[in-house]
Amino acid sequence: MPTPHLDDLDAFAAIVRDGGFRVAAAKRGVSASSLSEALRRLESTLGVRLVNRTTRAVTPTDAGSKLYERLVPALGEVGAALDAVNMFRDSPVGTLRLNVPGIVARAVLPTLVTGFLAENPAVVMEVVADDTFLDVLAAGFDAGVRYDERLERDMIAVPLGPRQQRFVLAGAPSYFAARGRPNHPSEVLDHVVIRHRFASGVSHPLEFEKDGEIVRVVPDGPLVSNAIELEIAAAVAGIGLIATFEEFLSSELQSGALESVLGEWLPPFSGPFLYYHSRRNMPGPLRAFVDFVKRRPKA
Question: Could you tell me the domains of the chain?
Answer without folding.
Answer: 6-85 (1.10.10.10), 90-163+271-295 (3.40.190.10), 167-267 (3.40.190.290)
